[in-house]
Specification:
The protein is α/β, with parallel strands linked by helices. It has a domain of 109 residues: Alpha-Beta Complex (Flavocytochrome C3, Chain A, domain 1), CATH 3.90.700.10. Helix content is 31%, strand content 19%. It is built from 15 helices and 23 strands. The strands form 6 sheets. It has a 5-stranded parallel sheet, with helices on one face. A 5-stranded mixed sheet has the order 21-19-14-23-22, with helices on one face. The longest helix is centred in the C-terminal third of the chain and has 19 residues.
């Protein structure tokens, strides 16, 4: 018998329509009816905005072991090596699976074209439509899902609560067209993406507000690594134009960062210069801007080894629309919030600590990224672990992820902070460089927010969790940098922080 208020029943409910959600829906429909719920249009996701590509060890001089080594090195001592080994070993099969779904990967001769990005020791970035890999994947999978009778798609439907009975998922509540509706399912998959909209400067679309983390936290699931938010070093910074990602593949093809004096400054900061890990590059840019009193540095593409308009058609067209011909004019850039390494804690099968509740993609925290994600491992992660989620549902084994032995119970903010104020607060105090004093000010304001209905419940919850985790971690590691604790990778902090709702 259905619980009161439940309108429809499904075998699997997927929340989110990026690459993780769409891939899960397409695989899970063979097990029974699937509901795919998304709070905006189906194409509104971080996936659609992803440029660089998918990392996978498919080149003749590459191997999963080398990919794993690069992933672990970038993660600054906090990578879960078991999960990362799964990611890298299963990467080549993911490329084949996406190609089987029809994703039009770019080719070079008889094989796939491979690019190189920061902190990768080999060219292993598979891309599509030049610099529009995410859009190519999103378009292909969305079209496939739309054709399948086993998948019901509900757009503009906001999941508001997970229904949990005795630590078992039972379904979800959602708001659609001004009405509350409920759906029943023994399996719910959170694929809600990231949380870049917590910050005033971000490469993420408006839908990236951390909903999945907040939903899972409220339902009693564990969340982890919330202090680690990656700031992409190179986002377009032009007055009146939204931040637009300038893929680091552009630097992989020979573009050079220059400061206000025209100096190529990155060799002063890291042996890999412009292809140093993202956290290193982002902080270097901040310091160069501070020293010169400017709000940007520039990316000089004049030495690029490719035809820019053909290799990077999306970037070329966007910049041209902003009055910049990147073939002849340096691009003004500055860092922007980009990717959340933290999220809902899962095991290697995508299970959370609530039975029947799964998470994959950016909403999840598998531990594969540690303190700093290796470029282009994100799209790879969505499909590798999305596939594993469906395999576990198919197995019928049930069960949940083992709880963390070091989980800390914390409360959630009582009220909601205005979105504009929240973003400014987070950018100022919880951005690229942090201090204990600033984080304390931010936490106090978040936790004293009023009950005014700003429609930022999820954002306020995740922001407070991020700040609390950043305040507790009294060291600098990966994307988390404390000016008052600049010592990097303190051995006493070589551990993850895991939170669960106290009540």
């Amino acid at each position: 018998m259905r619980p009161p208020g439940v309108t429809e029943s499904y075998r699997t409910i997927v929340i989110g329509s990026g690459s993780a959600g769409l891939f899960v829906a397409l695989e899970a429909m063979h097990l029974g009816p699937v509901l795919l719920l998304t709070k905006a249009a189906i194409e509104d996701s971080n996936t659609s905005w992803a440029q660089g590509g998918v990392a996978a060890a498919i080149g003749p001089l590459d191997s999963p072991a080398q990919h794993l080594s690069d992933t672990v090195a970038a993660g600054a001592g906090l990578v879960d090596e078991e999960a990362a080994r799964v990611l890298c070993n299963e990467g080549p099969a993911v490329i084949r699976a996406l190609a089987d779904h029809g994703v039009p990967f770019d080719r070079a001769g008889e094989g796939l074209a491979l690019g190189r990005e920061a902190a990768h020791s080999r060219p292993r970035i598979v891309h599509a439509r030049g610099d529009q890999t995410g859009a190519a994947i999103e378009d292909t999978l969305a079209a496939a899902a739309g054709r399948r009778t086993g998948i019901t798609i509900r757009e503009h439907a906001q999941a508001t609560r997970l229904l949990v009975e005795r630590n078992h998922i039972a379904g979800i509540e959602a708001a659609q067209e001004g009405h509350m509706v409920a759906f029943e399912a023994p399996n719910v998959v959170l694929a809600t993406g990231g949380a870049g909209q917590l910050f005033s400067h971000t490469t993420n679309p408006e839908v990236a507000t951390g909903d999945g983390i907040s939903l899972a936290f409220d339902a009693g699931a564990e969340v982890a690594d919330l202090e680690f938010f990656q700031f992409h070093p190179t986002a377009l910074r032009v007055p009146g134009v939204r931040p637009f990602l300038i893929s680091e593949t552009v630097r992989g093809e020979g573009a050079v960062l220059r400061n206000a004096a025209g100096e190529a400054f990155m060799p002063r900061y890291h042996p890999l210069a412009d292809l140093a890990p993202r956290d290193v590059v982002a902080r270097a840019i901040v310091r160069e801007m501070r020293a010169a009193g400017t709000d940007h540095v520039t990316l000089d593409c004049s030495a690029a080894k490719v035809e820019l308009d053909k290799r990077f058609p999306g970037i070329f067209a966007f910049c041209l629309g902003a009055g910049i011909d990147i073939r002849t004019t340096p691009i003004p850039i500055a860092p922007a919030a980009h990717y959340y390494m933290g999220g809902v804690r899962t095991d290697t099968r995508g299970r959370t600590t609530v039975q029947g509740l799964y998470a994959c993609g950016e909403a999840a925290c598998t531990g594969v990224h540690g303190a700093n994600r290796l470029a282009s491992n994100s799209l790879l992660e969505t499909v590798v672990f999305g596939k594993r989620v469906v395999e576990h549902i198919r197995s019928g084994d049930g069960g949940a992820a083992d709880p963390s032995p070091e989980v800390l119970g914390v409360g959630r903010p009582f009220g909601e902070l205005d979105a504009g104020r929240l973003r400014a607060l987070m950018w100022e105090y919880a951005g690229i460089e942090r201090t204990g004093a600033g984080l304390s000010l931010a936490l106090a304001e978040l936790e004293s927010a009023s009950e005014a209905p700003h429609r930022t419940r999820e954002m306020t919850t995740v922001a407070a969790l991020l700040v609390r985790a950043a305040l507790a971690r009294t060291e600098s590691r990966g994307a988390h940098y404390r000016r008052d604790f600049p010592q990097r990778d303190d051995s006493r902090w070589q551990r993850r922080q895991v939170f669960r709702r106290a009540d």
